[in-house]
Amino acid sequence: MFTSRTIRFRFTDYLGATEALLLVLEDARETPKKYRITGISPESILTNGLLLEGDIEEISEKVALISGATQHDS
Amino acid sequence: MASFGEQIEASRQSHLAVRALEETVRAQVERTFQMWENGEISNRQIRFRLEHIVRNAYRSAAAVGVAHTSAQSGIPGWRPVGVFNTDYLQGLLADVRRNLREFNASDRGPKARRRAISRIEHSAGVGATRGYTDAVLETNRELQDFGYLLRKLWLANFVNNTPCEFCQALHGTEVGLDESFPTDENLLKVYGDLKGPPRHPRCKCRLVILHVRLENLFERLNVDAPQDGTTDTLTTDEIQAMPSGVFGLITRGLRRIIRFLRGAQ
């Protein structure tokens, strides 16, 4: 069942932000699911967090595993 | 510093520092000549002092270029290799020595004096402008190796300045990172090469290297009135519609940055 959800991930270092961006971009390129990504540069992710909106269950679990990530439901 | 407009503005600020440096080193040349004429420094010292001014102009401006690219890249901990010595700088130093020799062999009259000072001032001024250009090119070569997508542009300066016909023709021209800008050498000879400004002594043009990123990938570039056409949001549909070459370059660049940052830890 499709469930729409919004999660913001926050990172404390540039490496974590870059890893999260790469992970999400590669997933978004292949996935049949639909979601929206806000924060498409490491600098922006460090400042404002990485916001995922839509069918994001699988990808959000992977992003949460990246070191330094903290997760907030919006 | 994501949008093209922000990057162009940042390069303008850095270039203002280089132009201030150029004015300072030009004044230093005249002052050094006066010290020599007043007997405060010897025939041997004048040559070393003038070469020192040109060398410092080049290297100080290069330091500004390195700091500019480093800030523009946004990569924490990345310390690009500085520009220290180049054929271009050696050419300028050879010009200083030649102009000094020609002055010594002349009648040392007011005309010969003015010509010598003017030419050596040009060497110092060109040294400052080109030092910045060479450093911006060298540091961006490193970023290109990282996988950065770059756009190299020539921008003439229209603020309190009317560029010459050659610089106006070059304004907004875009070439590859290691390519020379196109110009008519029959009308005005190029000193060295034209991989970036200056086109001529006292040239106020600047080299701008834009970093193309996801946020500005589809931004329309207008060098005269840059708009902030960046986005911070993409959908899965938009990412899947991206040409595979562009997507591959972006992700390869991110992977290289991750490798670099992991190595730095």
Walk me through this protein's architecture.
- The complex is a heterodimer of chains A (74) and B (265).
- Chain A is α+β, with helices and mostly antiparallel strands and 74 residues long.
- Chain A has one domain: Alpha-Beta Plaits, CATH 3.30.70.
- In chain A, 43% of the residues lie in helices and 26% in strands.
- Chain A contains 3 helices and 4 strands.
- Chain A is globular, with a radius of gyration of 11 Å.
- The mean pLDDT of chain B is 92.
- The longest helix of chain B has 37 residues.
- Chain B is elongated.
- Chain B has 265 residues and is mainly alpha-helical.
- Chains A and B meet through helix 1, strand 2 and helix 2 of A and strand 4, helix 6 and helix 7 of B.
- Strand 2 of chain A pairs antiparallel with strand 4 of chain B.
Strand order of the largest sheet of chain A: 2-3-1-4
- Contiguous uncertain segments of 5+ residues of chain A: none
Say what oligomer this is: heterodimer
Query: Which structural class do you get from the secondary structure elements of chain B?
Result: mainly alpha
Count of helical segments of chain A? 3
Helix coverage percent of residues of chain A? Answer: 40-55%
Q: Please, what is the average pLDDT of chain A?
A: 88
CATH class of chain A: Alpha Beta
Taking the sheet with the most strands of chain A, its summary is: 4 strands, antiparallel
Tell me the fraction of residues in β-strands of chain B, as a range: 5-15%
- What general form of chain B does the structure show? elongated
Indicate the CATH topology of chain A: Alpha-Beta Plaits
- Most residues in contact: chain pair: A-B, 25 and 27 residues
Tell me the distance between the termini of chain A: 20 Å
